[in-house]
Amino acid sequence: MKVAxxxxxxxxxxxxxxxxxxxxxxxNTYQDQYKPLIxxxxxxxxxxxxxxxxxxxxxxxxxxxxxxxxxPAFGSGPFASLSSLDVGVKLMPLLSGKVEVEEVTLREPVxxxxxxxxxxxNASTIGRKGVAMPETPSRAPIPSTEGPLKxxxxxxxxxxxxxxxxxxxxxxxxxxxxxxxxxxxxLRLQSVRLGQTPxxxxxxxxxxxxxxxxxxxxxxxxxxxxxxxxxNFQLALGKTEFTITGKASGQNATVNIGSSAINxxxxxxxxxxxxxxxIKNVQIAAEVKGQEAKLNNLALQLFDGQVKGQAKLVTGSExxxxxxxxxxxxxxxxxxxxxxxxxxxSVSGTAGADLSLQxxxxxxxxxxxxLEGTGHVGVKDGKVEGVNLLQEALAILKVAGLSxxxxxxxxxxxxxxxxxxxxxxxTVQRLLMDSHDFQATGGGTIGFDQRxxxxxxxxxxxxxxxxISGLSPxxxxxxxxxxxxxxxxxxGTVQQPAYGLDMKGVTGAVQEQVxxxxxxxxxxxxxxxxxxxxxxxxxxxxxxxxFGR
Length: 549
What we know:
47% strand
């Protein structure tokens, strides 16, 4: 009995000692040993208010008031802070003298990521072991193979979690600074060990967009570097889902993104669209090599047609240079233009295009100054709603009493043109438009400011030319080989086009006819085949024919 009581007392004392350990052992006295190691690994100054042993719910340690300070070039405040950092270890390995971390929990972390006016992130120098932090961060930081993920992998953690986190992203490089916040961050990383492939789960809400974000997948296996042999994720942005696969090695990476359907109304960005657009079967294949980013393949279905493209971008400057090519086939032009903008004119039909572009930067001033390219555009079996080009020409000629069908639409079988883009101007070359009643050719310019300077030469059909010439003396003067050729000018803007008739072209046609008649008359007089009285009569008939009286 005494042995049993003694054993019970011993157990109680041991249990009491175990529960008293957090109060008896002060780990803060060891800060001078482990704090420099943490600062060296993160390449940042850190702050630890308190660190204690924990017994419940698991054996480990709790760090309170942990903060990682920002890069001095960005500020003196904390880059990241959290109310507590809990590290739990496994009991059985601990009894045999081994420390195996079971779980790391970050409670209520607050992280602030800043992009300065030069486009440099304050996170770019984290983990750059052995590299002195520059007073002014470079545009392209020195590549890093160190970082928090490597530290976790070396610790061999079963699970890393974030509870109630908040992350702020502040962009000061834009003309109008923007800020986005990830609220209620719930993150879980499992199997964070060298040689294993961790699984990731993330739930959060993006403000001010109020956009739910969910990310699930795997990446790895983990190495002592940041290289990732394979990653496979499912990303949900609100109602839009993406499949993401790829790999990374040093500064090089490849990524493939796919989505069955994307509605622009559900995207977390404001696009310059008048109406939401649905994009189907999106496939993106891209790669990064140092500062060069390549879009190797873009394929998607849009407005019942197929769009394919490629592009290359070189980062490292405020206005990065880029090249791109785009092929469009079978796109319904009417819905496409309605989605881009609301104008007085609407063009329908099935469109195709081939474009090659190059430039620097993506802001409108940069594009106006540096965007260059060429292309070919064609539209078949369509209609220009809002204007009847032939009706506009006849109104200028003051032709009345002739019905041409819909007075506010131009039906065509084909529109084709070559394009050249330079210094904010789209030059329209070799424009061809085929319609039932006319064929139009011409060219001109369309500015990025939407100003129009176009000349279209309308060659009317023989039957229609005869009808019009019988109703307009001016039109009769412009007849050539039984057909009317009307040089129509289009000015104004895309929203408010203005139409006119190039009278120099019309009078030129009249001069040709008068010149021909005069040559015939003079020739007849010289040869003696024409008498002066006959010439007078022919002149009267010619004028009567021109003016109808």
